[in-house]
Amino acid sequence: MSDLGPEPQPRPTPPAQTAGARPTPTGEVPLRPASGAEPAGRAGPAGRAEPADGAGPADGAEPTGPRSDGDRFAHRPPGYPSALVWLRAGILRDWRGVLGSFLATWFYVPLALVSAVWGGLALGLYGLIAGGTRSDEAVPALLRDAPLVGPLLDAFVARSGGVVGGFAGFVVGALVGFLVVLVLPWRNAFDEPANLFTGLAGMVVAAGLVGMLYTVGRVLLEPWLLGVSGARPLSRREADRLRPLLTDCAARLGLPGEPRLLIEDDPVLTNARAYARHVVVTTAVLDCSDEEIAALLSHELVHWRTGDEVTSAFIRGVGLPLVLVHALPAWLMRRFPHPATDFVVFLFFWPVLLTMRYLVLPCHRRDVRAAEYRADTGAVLAGHREGMRAMLERRRSFETGRSGWDEAVCATHPPSELRLDRLDQPAPDPVTDRAATARDLDALFGGTGTAALNSRRALLLVGALVLVSCLGGGLTAAQWAFFRPQAAVGDYFAALDDHDAPAALAQLIPDVRAAVGDGGQLARMVEAKGYQPPTDVSVTAVERDGDEASATVAYTLGGQQLTAELSLRRDDSAVLGLFHRWRIAAAPASLTLPGGPARLTVNGVPAPTGPEQVAVPLLPGAYTVAGESNALSETASRVVYVVPGQQSVSGAELTPTLRPEAQSAAEQSVRSYLDACAAQAVAAPQGCPLRYYSGGATVKKIAWKITEYPTIELTLTGPTTARVSTAYESQGSARATGSTVGYFGTTPFTDTGTFGVSGVLSVVDGKLTFQPGDD
Description:
The chain is 44% helix and 18% strand.
């Protein structure tokens, strides 16, 4: 698609507008399709919706080209095995343009420019002030004291310190501001280098996907886009003039099909443009000779055949966010061509305009200019050298100088003089040397179509895609199997089922593991036979919120089917720099045991003791808590169930009960104690409940006899102690016999009294021992 006919006198391009930029059918401006160019300042051609039968009522007999009733890409170029190969050939050709569009858009270059300018201004202002006010500190004392050199340096710094400081500050600030925007999204890569690869790969995939979708959409909607911008089918008179020329040119180029030919009403500009599936000419072309028209159509057929429009569409798609933002200032500057408008637009959109002008367009326009040389070569091989020379000579008469960035670096077409120079290069005569012409045409189109499938670049790309797909599939499978929240929950309960407490604790977050301690006692409790883990565990639902998740777990414990919620957290560190494990954030439940000397056991493992209550951490499952059993008391064991996610456990308040045989043993111990008391021949045996009151007389030869032993009552005060007491109605009796010596001599006596027993019964060396004491 080229401007090969006469042009009007070109008008100056606004300073901030890219020369040669033109709107696409959707109003986009930034990227010039590789298949040609139009005169500056003119809206681009478009077409109309394609009739279902491939020809409108006024089209005349229009060949349909390579299409089928179900082909959505009708009128695509021939020579490609499929539409996919055609799109791929166009997409992969201009790697510089794709790279420039990718870097500018996905690395936020416009934002980096804004950050660079503001950072440069801030540090430049600081350097200007600091350099002007602290210049005396810039010169070391050693140099300042040196003859001649010291005064010279002082004078230099005093008069230029502010300027130098401001310039240095601006450079440093701009560089830092620019790099901050580029580096900030990759800050996690410093801790995990794999994030750099995965992040870059994700950006490439996203950019490629957006570019592909945009390209396919543009190709599919091309008839409608061209229709709404003014292109129409040919009339019969126009078709009689142009259709035979197009068919002849296609045959000369060895093309078995043709694009659909549309025309737009413009009697001034001699212009043509090749799209992905159409070629659009202006009505001014009808005023040219048949040779010139044939040269023009041959030129555009080469653009169409090589898929230059597909290349440009993909580059626009890769940089679609930047392209859409750039469309507004470009439209304003084109719609209102005034210096004041240009200044205001540039003031608001300068980062986008500069990025497009100095990064994106220069990268792509190199391929655009190469495509023009390629299309000129195709016209020569079709036998229309003289027609092409006439068109270029006419165009050269309207060309201005190529001074400036826009006209030189961002130009869409090479200078006409250089194109004319290439036309003079030797080429085979298409009439007399058809074999050589066929070879040259095959070389011209050899980079696309079936030959591209066997090219080294295609093979490398296919191999890279296969490798990435396999690697991505393997990594995805590993992530799915081992690094999902469900995997962490499954590993946790699998360790419990294996009675492996260390493995279960390894699935907890570090903070929780630290709170458990060494976990040795907990491991022994889980390894014991009395431990019952949850069974029939299944994860029914997982809800994620960033690096945190909540899993709903169904399980069976104690014969009951239950559900629980487990909170999980994603590790900050990565395995192999790629995978982040999930760990359970729920702490083990806390079982509170009573304090005191009594020792309890959990699954047969002695629990810690202390003067106050003691908390024992427990993992989910069933535990048997038992107390101490001895000759005095016994404590019935109790099963405690710990459900996942539970924080505290109750039900371990074990109460010791008196053994039935402890009563008789206690009575026997008390009787032994009373018999020992009765054996003492004193009126008040020490530590005994027996007493004889003589009224002040001296007691001689007293003897005690227990006539009835008291009935004692035992009250447990602990697992190994009990309080011994005697009820009033259950007191025992004893008879004392002897004599007393008084004022009137020796007097014999016999006395009977009641008594009770109190004290403490305790277990000593496994036996019950009575210790008397006050009740």
